Amino acid sequence: MKKLIQLFRQTFIYGIATVFPRVISVLLVRLHTDKEILESVSDYGNLSLIFSYIILFNVILSYGLETSFFRFFSKESNKKEVLSTSSISIIFTTILFYAITTIFKVQISEFTGIETQYLNLVLWILVLDALVVIPFAYLRAKGNAIKYSIIKIVNVIVYFSLNIFLLIFLKKIAVNNSAFASIYIPNYEISYIFISNLIASATTLLFLLPFYFKINYRINFILLKKMLIYALPILISGVAYSINETFDKILLDFILPDSIAKSQIGMYSACYKLALFMTLFSTAYKLGIEPFFFKEAQENSPQKTYALILEIFVILGCSLLLLVIVFADLLKTIFIGDPEYWEAMKIVPVILLANFCLGIYQNLSVWYKITDKTKFGAYISVAGATITLVLNFILIPYYSYVGSAIATLVAYASMVIISYLLGREHYPIPYKTKKISFYIIFSVLLSVVSFYFFRGNYYIGIACIVLFNLTIVLMEKSNIRLLIKSLNEN
């Protein structure tokens, strides 16, 4: 239990660094969906589509080396060699990427539909983000959660502040100030958003630049080969994850008629953001547990700890799922002010549950990471991505973004089942499946009752929340007592 308390302290610190940026991104939905900023739902759809490509290529440019770095940094005696080899690899591939994409910029623009004025900014954002992958991984591996969090938070403050200044105040100031008038460009809002992102990414790299002056620029090709072999399945998993997470918007753009595609993407993306509360929780949890999994693997019989970690995750996640669904309509008025976007609110419970399944899968993935059987992670992720693609192609023509939401849920739920079954065979962990299943089913049933039968009735919704949390207290009495005792000892 003491180890778990230490883990949750780390998770809390990482959580601040994760939750704060995501909360800001949700707040920016309110700004970006304001008609005075982006005039139409289609404009917001275009912005969301470009960010989908950024997420996909962020994964490709890190190519699984972050997780590979954790693995080899924890087990290799020459840690400086791991540090320098992984850093040089990232630098080389990033420069190569920028050179190739610059040469074929026109062709890329034509294929993706991203205007070249945006593409120039996007390429630089991708380059800067790639160069901080290993420095951030090093901070996490060393347990320097506070520095990690501070840099992440500064990044978000810069991004948020520039969005506010460039989208709201610059136009007003430019009217009476000739200096600002020279930098203000009408109808340049989407570019201003990417410029804000670019400056924030550059600021982050500036903070982490001392890292690159401390490493020895020597590359061990034998070690690099081992790291890349380990990383390859992680890359495949990451690309597959990105397909699950972002390709729905790209496919909506390709499959739907041009006249409605961007507006459908805009509504879908805005309401999708409300499911981010579950993503916040899952991501913060993942940042804390990933290094912990590898350290715990050195102990005797770590399986019981892994089982308890998943159980706690499910209990907290189910409670959060129900809470967000009950107050979803209240949240939409806070974060999405324009009613034109609210048509897509029906997908919020589906996407919340899908992201919850993803969090469960990330917890289950411990078995193939610590046994170096990362190829199974690739198999599972590819299976999920295949389901996503197939269902999107089948459902989008009939159900538009609702089909995409259903595809995401089915894909992540399938990955949970596949990972659990394979893990039981290759690295048995004593998960309390009956208890976990009960919590999930019970929270989903209460969510369905609240959202689809008594939507807007907060008396019923709050009663559902109270009922679920009372059930937790009754079922977890002994664990709660043990936790309180451990906290008092610390």
Strand content: under 5%
SS content category? mainly alpha
Please give the alpha-carbon distance between the first and last residues.
Answer: 11 Å
Radius of gyration (CA) equals 23 Å
The residue-averaged pLDDT reads 86
Total of helices: 22
Shape: globular
Question: How many strands, which pairing sense, and closed or not: the largest β-sheet?
Answer: none
Low-confidence segments: none
Number of domains: 1
How helix-rich are the residues, as a percent range? Answer: over 70%
Query: Would you list the SSEs in sequence order as H and E?
Result: HHHHHHHHHHHHHHHHHHHHHH
Number of strands: 0
What this model shows, in words?
It is a single chain. This protein has 490 residues and is mainly α. The protein has one domain (2-489). It is 84% helix and 0% strand. It is built from 22 helices and no strands. The chain has helices spanning 2-32, 41-62, 65-75, 79-103, 105-112, 116-130, 133-141, 145-176, 178-181, 189-214, 221-255, 258-272, 276-296, 303-326, 328-335, 348-364, 366-370, 374-399, 401-426, 433-453, 458-475, 477-489.
